[in-house]
Amino acid sequence: MRLVLLGPPGVGKGTQGRHLAREHRWALISTGEMLREAVARQTPLGYEARKTMEAGLLVGDEVMIGLVRERSNDADAREGFVLDGFPRTVPQADALDSMLQARGQRLDAVLGFDAPREELVRRLSARRECPVCKRAYNLATAPPPDGGHCDDHPDTLLIQREDDSEATVRRRLEVYEAQTAPLLEYYRGQGRLRKVQAGGTVAEVYRSLAEALGCREESV
Ligand code: AP5
Description:
- The chain is an alpha/beta fold.
- 46% of the residues lie in helices and 14% in strands.
- Helix 4 runs parallel beside helix 5.
- It is globular, with a radius of gyration of 17 Å.
- The relative contact order is 0.19.
- Bound molecules: BIS(adenosine)-5'-pentaphosphate.
- BIS(adenosine)-5'-pentaphosphate is lined by residues 9-15, 31-32, 35, 52-53, 56-59, 64, 85-86, 88, 92, 123-124, 127, 136-138, 141-142, 163, 172, 201-202, 205.
């Protein structure tokens, strides 16, 4: 199965994508993670992307398409993958179609997540993540047991993402509406869009996602 998770910042793509990919042993391809990794390692891509990401803007299409072309061809992605954060523009969506077609593959479904905007701002301002395993916590809804460290890496302090300040979150939401939301129509027109109600709890959202995929899922 090859899936795209589409939706605004903070809607739960990473949280749900991690669980879905683990459960089905599909590769999780998160372009945001790949970029943050490059920034942390201070690679040329990291230098190029850092300012753009901190400003809440999109990194160039060619760079992103090249990253996904390479990663989606890795051995662990052959049986299936979940794309989190890609495509984000119409040129990226066109490129994804062409790259899959060239491999004799196709996109099975696009899961369109949605939730009220104020809920997204609330979730993102309370998000903290483990810099080692990238697991997302939330000070309001999924707090770490001791208030500041990762469950699986007890020596590691959780951090706040650079782009989770309220002003940058609002900018990311504007960028989403302008550049990414048109993909909903793009995929609806192709008959591949399935809606996921993402305003509820993590378990409720996972149930909605399972329904959209038409499969029985273990609850989170
Ligand atoms: P990216 O990392 O993809 O960020 P995003 O799309 O803005 O999404 P987020 O990671 O912020 O949110 P999410 O939907 O994954 O929510 P999460 O599960 O973490 O991209 C970052 C940047 O990289 C972009 O701005 C851009 O610059 C660049 N970039 C990446 N891909 C690109 C591309 N293709 N083209 C160009 N540029 C690109 O949940 C959020 C919080 O809410 C967490 O604290 C979580 O615990 C909590 N939470 C989750 N679900 C629930 C729930 N149901 N109820 C309550 N709390 C919940």
